[in-house]
Design brief:
- The chain is an all-beta fold and about 70 residues long.
- The protein is about 0% helix and about 55% strand.
Length: about 70
């Protein structure tokens, strides 16, 4: 998630069993494919994102991330 126009942000990444592997409110934080400081398996992960922009609109997105090594 990039941008200097984000007022608030909540985003999370889940594995295929629904376990949360990342949660953040920091727009500068990225996910490096680790969980508890250990590399996790390649595969498809689900993200959920909710953000509010400085000019007012809200956005809610979800989708898939494919982790490869």
């Amino acid at each position: 998630v990039y941008g200097n126009c984000i007022s608030t942000l909540n985003w999370a990444v889940y594995d295929r069993w629904g376990a949360k592997v990342l949660e953040s409110t920091n727009p500068a934080q990225t996910w490096d494919g680790t969980y508890k400081d250990k590399e996790i398996n390649t595969g498809v992960y689900v993200y959920k994102l909710e953000a509010t922009f400085l000019n007012g609109p809200n956005v809610s997105k979800n989708g898939n991330i494919t982790l490869t090594k």
